[in-house]
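Practice problem 4.
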């Protein structure tokens, strides 16, 4: 026999669980977006050497 979840025991908790799951989902999406955005900018700066000269190659663009 399965135990009833808190939402099944008290139907008024369904809204709270829905709101909490939506907010957690949005928070996870925001964190994922920020991580991907940061990685994309880091890759772009490595690829094109926008801020630093080619430090990852061990060379300098200045002659």
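Answer key:
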């Amino acid at each position: 026999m399965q135990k009833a979840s808190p939402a099944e025991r008290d139907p008024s908790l369904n809204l709270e669980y829905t709101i909490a799951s939506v907010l957690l989902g949005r928070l996870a999406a925001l964190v994922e977006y920020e991580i991907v955005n940061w990685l994309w900018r880091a890759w772009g700066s490595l690829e094109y050497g926008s801020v630093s000269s080619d430090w990852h190659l061990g060379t300098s663009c200045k002659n």
